[in-house]
Write a structure and sequence with these properties.
Elements: E1 3-6, H1 14-26, E2 30-33, H2 42-45, H3 47-58, H4 64-75, H5 81-88, H6 90-103, H7 114-121, E3 153-157, H8 161-173, E4 178-182, E5 191-194, E6 198-202, H9 208-215, E7 218-222, E8 233-238, H10 244-254, E9 260-263, H11 272-288, H12 294-304, H13 311-318, H14 320-333
Parallel strand pairs: 1-2, 3-4, 6-7, 8-9
Antiparallel strand pairs: 3-5, 5-6, 7-8
Enzyme class: oxidoreductase
Pfam families: 3HCDH (PF00725), 3HCDH_RFF (PF18321)
Protein name: Probable 3-hydroxybutyryl-CoA dehydrogenase
Length: about 350
Amino acid sequence: MKLIEIIPSYFTSRATSLRCQQLVTALGKQFVVCKATPGFIVNRMARPFYLEGFRLLEENVALAPQIDRALKAGGHFRMGPLELTDFIGQDINYQVSKQIWQDMQFDPRYTPGHLQRSLVDAGLLGRKNGRSFFASQPATPPNPTTEGDTPTSLHFYGEHALFDHLQQRALATWPALRVQRLPERPELGRFILVNNRLAIKITDGRTANLLAGLTALDTFVIDAALNYADTAYLVAAHNQHATETNKALFLTLLQTLIAQVEFIKDSPALIVARVLSSLINESVIMVESGVCSRADIDIAAVAGVNYADGIFAWLAQLGQKNVKSTLDNMAQLLHSTRYYPHYSLLNAARPELAVAPKEK
């Protein structure tokens, strides 16, 4: 373990705390300092990763392999939440979630899933006893064929790095393609209009069906990714009555940039955006309530749970406004208190939270 959490009590002197920090440094490890609160930093900070993974499965949003694969591809996680809980042991992971939930006065943000409890009751604990529920899950469905129309015109409303990458690949594939860049629309924000007949939007927490009511077109929502240019797998959703022709056109365009795109259930924030936004919100709550510093959160994320980057680095990359709007829509459509954004996300003037977006 690269990380040691130092938890001073009410009676721990400053000198003792400093001696602990010096000892940890001498051992060649990193340390974080945290108040004596449930889960300390690592276990509390990482709860949304596991809990949202199970909630996505319980809500039938996607298959287990799709959930894990989407988070590894788009969120740069080393393992997905479902395979990681198998690795840890379902009983251990469930017990930690349950203990934090109880200690946090049954706050709905920490409510454990009934599915994980059923795995524990059935003895499907994962690697530790060689019995895994997820190992028997069906493989993801085959990639849909994309035979059909090709794009003839693209209208990009607003700016996003994905739009730049997609425009470049599309023009390389179809040199006669007509491209126009326009300001984003107030009610829709940033989106792409393809052949004047279908709309594509990066998820902001609203479902494709809701957005289709605004566009009056077949509408496709794509999941978030930390770097679309190096993402080989992406999930998307479409409105209920989208035509097969428009589905094929959407896939034809997206697969010029991303090798495999799979449709999942039309649900708020899909997979990556839902998990990242939940992780960010929890970390913001911890910092604002004085549990630890922002720097300690990012150290714990990288050295403690082996994330590819710090959680506040994700906030910078995704953009504070985008994270806040995603959480707002999740709160409206999924659970009013579980996903409600911390008020500090409203205030970009706060230096510890005011971070410029760095989309890739």
